Amino acid sequence: MASEMLNIRQVKVNDPFWNSRIDLVIDHVIPYQWRVLNDQEEDAEPSHAIRNFEIAAGLAQGEFQGYQFQDSDLAKWIEGASYSLLYRDDPELRKNLRDVIGLIGKAQQPDGYLDTHYIVKKPDKKWQELAHGHELYCAGHMLEAAAAYQLATGDDSLMRIMDRLVDLIRSKFGKGPGQIDAYPGHEEIELALMKAYRLTGKEKYRDLAEYFILNRGSKPGFFNDPRFIELAKADKALDASYYQAHKPAVEQDSAEGHAVRAMYFFTGMSDVAAATGNEALKEALKKLWRSVTERRMYVTGGVGSQGNGERFTIDYDLPNDTCYTETCAAIGLAMWSLRMLALEPRAEYADILEKALYNNVLSGISQDGEHYFYVNPLMLKPDVARFRVDHESVEPSRVKWFPCACCPPNVARTLTGLGQYLYTRSGRRIYQHLYIGNETALGDIRLSCRSSMPWAGEAEITVSAAEPFEMALRVPGYAKDFRTRINGQAAAPNMENGYAVLALRDGDRVEVRFDMPPQVLAANPRVTEDCGRACVVRGPLVYCAEETDNGPLLQDFRLNPAAGIETAQSDLFGGIRTLLVHGTRTADDGDNRLYRPYGEVTRTKADLLLIPYYLWNNRGEGEMTVWMNVKGD
Asked: What is the pLDDT of residue 631?
């Protein structure tokens, strides 16, 4: 049974855990990023994004600066800022949005073209550098921004700008005479077109998205692009699979290439499959899902194990210290998970959605909201990361901004847009995928959810509805003793694909309870780096050890799973659940020989304090590890 995603206006997050982060974005992140985009933040990498639009609009003199996709940073900021208005109106922010949208309109060319890199720097190369030019990628992000701004404010001024650009793209791309029969090197426009389709109902958006999805992998496409040929010859990591162009979409069965591109592609692919009923796409998506989540995904929900090409490699190749696991890729995985839930509500999709959001996505931003990780490793030794070539992508600490700054505004728009991930709907059945506190209005059905997640498996939902309806409550894969009550009485729900289905009516109060004991996980032995190791999770949260709490040489610790795990309430970070694990470490006997007989090594009892992975590196630099060596039998 398929379901539908909800309009972001229908769901308002009201949750102790998540609203503290949404408030951080509203109060600090959006103003901070606005200063960065205007090149006004000291010690941050210059963005040039708004300056490029001023030059393109003829309001300033100068040369284009930054990456060819610099426009997309501004687009994602607009999206995040627009969603923030659903939580808190801000006249100054509204003015900044109106002004920058006016600037974008002035930069747009008479035929509808909009991309400052090509307007300012390469006017003779428009639509000729599809593999790496990012014109369609930038158009996609700006189209997403337009949809968000219209949803939040009712103002369609940016959508009108983008509608002209989409009409230009439709005239340029296709299989008709004189058209370019190709597709973008970096997917994004496909999912954006489907957002515009859902908002406006205009079939031209859906049809163009379907064309780009189904045409992918066809030749010549961008295979004649000189830059593609040059890079593919120089580096095997940048072959056709890097762009997911090695096969048509319906024939793909393994996640290949650049991880962010892949996640955005699979998201758009899912949207098109849902809108058109294309069964071949649906079957391909199921195979791709298994490829990612069963063989190529980190325990944190991170994807993309190799820095060179920011890409997937082979099954079970999941190194911990050199992994790429880009923040944007985890956001893309969350987006794709939601679309899979729309295609077919299954708890396994929501499990991955939750894993990505609570771990790899949140680790991408600091607690102060002004420092970011692009790469999210599962093990770090700062001195090694600074020195070794194979760690060149790994930062020992979050930084204030990046020359390639795709991740910071992506996190902001994800947090202010979190409401869209909680539910899907199929007629009179509401699927609740995440136990996040919220207030939701779905026609005559109104829901109010209070939740103790991620610290306790408790949620309470109160209902207002004119007519009876069904609610399908996800049973998390980690939950023990899942139970429900309606108006204080034990309920006996029907189980469907990992959801507990209840019949509800006006005035009902639903209680959800489940236990979340800490679990020690082992990896498949094919994951070489994790052989003989284990990690600890509790509920949706993956835990890690930091040098700040435990001293150095974390890899010397040997976990004893049989010794149990202690859970404690801590005042750290304003109040979290910490875990204490037990094992042994090498005794400090002053022997500093590089090598010595194993029998001379003495081990002593030791404990490690674990904190949620998303919080690491908020108290200074130091070693960190998710996976721990295990005491031998």
From this structure: 85
Residue 606 phi/psi, 5-degree rounding, is -155, 160
CB atoms within 10 A of CB 480: 11
Average pLDDT over the chain reads 96
**Cα–Cα separations (whole angstroms), residue 52 to 66, 446, 606:** 9, 45, 56
Q: Which of 406, 407, 535, 544 is catalytic?
A: 406
What count of other Cβ atoms lies within 10 Å of the Cβ of residue 4? 14
| Interatomic CA distance for residues 86 and 151, integer angstroms | 9
From the options 2.30.29, 3.30.70, 2.60.40, 1.10.150, give the CATH code of 423-515.
2.60.40
pLDDT at 428 over 80: yes
Q: Which residues pair with 511 in a beta bridge?
A: 460, 485
Q: How many CB atoms lie within 10 A of CB 100?
A: 22
Q: Are 575 and 593 in contact (CB under 8 A)?
A: no
* Dihedral angle over CA of 135, 140, 141, 143, nearest 10: 120
Residue 406 annotated to the active site? yes
Mark whether 407 is an active-site residue: no
User: What CA–CA distance (Å, rounded) separates 371 from 317?
Assistant: 29
Q: Classify strands 423-426 and 429-432 as parallel, antiparallel or unpaired.
A: antiparallel
Average pLDDT over residues 438-459: 97
Q: What gap in Å lies between CA 231 and CA 331, rounded to an integer?
A: 27
In whole angstroms, what is the distance from residue 130 CA to residue 184 CA? 5
Q: Are 281 and 273 in contact (CB under 8 A)?
A: yes
With a CB cutoff of 8 Å and minimum separation 6, the contacts of 80 are: 25, 29, 30, 33, 409, 412, 413, 414, 415, 416, 417
Q: Is the pLDDT of residue 633 over 70?
A: no
Q: How confident is the model at residue 506 (pLDDT cuts 50, 70, 90)?
A: very high
Buried b (16+ CB within 10 A) or exposed e, 344-372: ebbbbbbbbbbbbbbbbbbbbbbbebbbb
| Residue 562, Cβ density class (10 Å: 0-12 exposed, 13-18 middle, ≥19 buried) | exposed
Would you call 409 exposed, middle or buried from its count of C-beta atoms within 10 A (0-12, 13-18, 19+)? buried
Residues of the chain with CATH 2.60.40: 423-515
CB 453 within 8 A of CB 435: yes
Strands 541-546 and 624-625: antiparallel
Q: Which of 188, 190, 310, 370 is catalytic?
A: 310
Parallel/antiparallel/unpaired status of strands 458-464 and 541-546: unpaired
Which residues, 6+ apart, have CB-to-CB distance to 283 below 8 Å?
A: 250
DSSP category for residue 561? G
With a cut of 80, say whether residue 632 has pLDDT above it. Answer: no
Distance CA 394, CA 307 (A): 9
Residue 588 and residue 504: Cα distance in Å, rounded? 62
Q: Per the structure block, which two tokens stand in for 106? A: 């002035």
Asked whether the beta carbons of 79 and 417 are under 8 A apart, the reply is: yes
Model's pTM, two decimal places? Answer: 0.97
